[in-house]
Amino acid sequence: MNCGIxxxxxxxxxxxxxxxxxxxxxxxxxxxxxxxxxxxxxxxVTAMLLSCDxxxxxxxxxxxxxxKIHAVRDHAAHIRSLLEASQAKRQxxxxx
Length: 96
Known about the structure:
Elements: H1 8-56, H2 63-95
């Protein structure tokens, strides 16, 4: 943009428009990154829960091993509930 030809008002308007566009792009990129991380964590927790369930269904497992797998499963279920609560908050914030 040629500052000698364009008026101060137009330059100001163009700068505000560019800043606004950049803020929207940053917000969209942040949302996309958050969603990707959330999805990856959710998939990992799902795999942990399934693996624990499969391990617990194995015959001949010792009581100590079963207790440890139950503990891991409980932790994974807790992480899942935290992820779901976080996702619900994000959805509410996006809709607002």
